[in-house]
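Fill in residues.
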């Protein structure tokens, strides 16, 4: 999957959060990926993106894993990220493993 550039100016966190509920999995996935660029709202975004880790669509799960991996505090990764490392989809697993390495790396 190709990753997006940071959202254009004017694209707001509330809009992207609303798009997490869209019926189109591509829209939900891109919304999760876009949200990963808003560090200043990390707590709110993590709360709203984590349910997407259990989305039926693997693209959405992969993008949600990326967002959680980028926004979660360094140190102890969230347990749901560890569960994503055992996802049936190989892309989700690879993204989760990469996020876990980043979050647990010694700085």
């Amino acid at each position: 999957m190709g990753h997006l550039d940071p959202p254009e100016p004017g694209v707001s966190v509330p809009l992207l959060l609303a798009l997490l509920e869209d019926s189109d999995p591509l829209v939900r996935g891109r919304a999760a990926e876009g949200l990963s660029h808003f560090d200043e709202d990390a707590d709110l975004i993590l709360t709203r993106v984590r349910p997407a880790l259990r989305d039926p669509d693997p693209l959405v799960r992969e993008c949600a894993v990326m967002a959680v991996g980028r926004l979660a505090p360094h140190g102890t990764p969230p347990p749901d990220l560890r569960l994503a490392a055992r996802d049936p989809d190989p892309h989700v697993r690879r993204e989760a493993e990469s996020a876990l390495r980043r979050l647990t790396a010694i700085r």
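Residues 90-104 form the longest helix (15 residues).
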